[in-house]
Amino acid sequence: MADLTTKLGSLTLQSPIMPASGTFTDELAQVFDLGLIGAHVTKTITAETRGGNPTPRVCEVAGGMLNSIGIPSKGVDYFVDHVIPIYRQWDAPLVVSISAGTADDFARLCARVSQPGVAAIEVNISCPNIEEDGKAFAMRPETTIRAMEALRAASDLPLWAKLSPNTGQTVEVAQAAEAAGADALVVANTLLAMAIDVDSRKPRLGNLMGGLSGPSLKPITLRMAYQAARSVSIPVIGCGGISTLQDVLEYLIAGAAAVQVGTASFREPAIMPRLIEELAAWMDAQGIASLPELIGSVRDDEASDAMIYAEAAP
Amino acid sequence: MSVHDFPIRQAALPVLSNNKVNEEYRQLILRAPSELMARCRPGQFFHLLCPTTSESAPFLRRPMSIYAALADREELHFLYKVTGLGTGTLARLQTGDVMDVLGPLGNGFTLADDWRNLLLVARGVGLATLAPLAHAAKDSGRRLTAICSARHADVLMSVQMFEGLGADVITVTDQDGTSTPDALRPVIDNLVAQGRVDAMFTCGSNRLLKLCQQVSADHGIPGEVALEQQMACGIGMCQCCVRSFRKPGGIVQLRVCAEGPVFDMAEAMGA
After folding, report:
1. CB B232 to CB A58 under 8 A?
2. What's CA A78's distance to the chain center, in Å?
3. Residue A190 region, left (φ>0) first, then alpha (ψ -120 to 50), else beta?
4. Is A127 annotated as catalytic?
5. pLDDT tens, B91-134?
6. pLDDT tens for each residue of A36-73
7. Which residues of B touch A22 (CB under 8 A)?
8. Residue A173 in 3-state DSSP?
9. Any alpha helices (H) in A39-126, and if so which ranges?
10. Is A241 on the interface with B (CB under 8 A)?
11. Which end of chain A has fewer CB atoms at under 10 Å, N or C?
12. What span, in angstroms and rounded, lies between the C-alpha atoms of B34 and B31?
């Protein structure tokens, strides 16, 4: 049987498939054995208690959904005392997603969650930076560097920087995160979007705008994962619209060393173990013994003209 | 571990029938494993993956209360009103089609031992949510009174089902002017005076919820409400379906799917 282990810096995952932050809690253990997946990634927490956005917080669109959940959080103390211990029952590495409005607050929170039982910290730098007009840290390389340097100084745990598709500087932001000490990149978060009910003429989200996720996002985040993977030497974790084996393979071939499955779990809660089985069966059928044969195997060498165009793309 | 060891299951169930019950509502009956049905509790729901057609492709599942979970007949019943994209595609299901369901989900109603006389106050599709309580009341030898409210007599549902299970049924309609809180209050007070209300259960109307809360507070009668909210995951992960509740320490947001859909009546707040 194919070897599904994948290396993300100092961490080795037994499989390349893990949940995306915000679409996973231990409540999924009511549906399947959570020991089967590559890692456990928690919903983003903040240092302070937050209530989240007004409802409706989700609306469906063609090929996906928009959300404006707004990071409701019981705060870091509750998380450290009550949530981290839950995950001790599984061997899969626990990845804690964190968010803050300033680089300093980010660093303090990062230090606080650097606890025994936490294998890595995913830093959600796609959230608004309140010191920079609310623009997400990951929109620009300068703000990415400032946040990542502060975070790097605050913890010895592996740091995964979660990038945003709301940028015109994908490659520059990816390189900035690497230069400032990120151990891996998660590419990417949701894309800012909107939907309007034509009868009431009201936006369909209580927060007016929200993040697009689901299959319709995939070509965009796949492109970003590809751009990131070929411009940095740290591992890239693909994220965005994955719901089939084909999607997993595309991200791996594009250069991702692992992938995160998010919105698809809302339609099919046991999709992650199914994709793991399908990936193993596909590799066996193809005679592929291990993932490194697949990761980054995209045949882009004959497309030099197109590559110039891709460099110019966001 | 087999799939049967997990409390929540995704299953593809064959459609036995999907017929109109009146001008507005349909009843969907699926064939379901008896061990799955035996685990369903009154007030729980399933999350339905609505079928995709060339014209419409609802992306998210739709939560729907269990109307009946009959282990002996291997049947799972839903009662629904066609209101939008998801229920629109449900209405087109035919005998022999397969329906993807996830469940049972959420927390069911409480039936404390000393609640011997139950009052249901239901409106519209809220009847579907409360209907399983009638089965449970009969099975545990409790007396049940059901107030069924609707816009007009033609869309009153489940009256025969309630009566068949030995319930006393009081029907009220907007058409007759009998369904307003002002008209209902003396009816309920009278039932309380007769000792027929140890606990109240309601679903389907904010107005009726408020009325029941007043009765509950005035007479010190406990009660529960089943609430609805738009959902994405249905199992507690996404934080989409929160509503506000009054708790001793202040107002809190709770997930309808995971902490509910059944809540203490006194804590619930209007939509």
Report:
1. yes
2. 23
3. beta
4. yes
5. 999 999 999 999 999 999 999 999 999 999 999 889 999 999 99
6. 999 999 999 999 999 899 999 999 999 999 999 999 99
7. 238
8. helix
9. 76-78, 103-112
10. no
11. N
12. 9
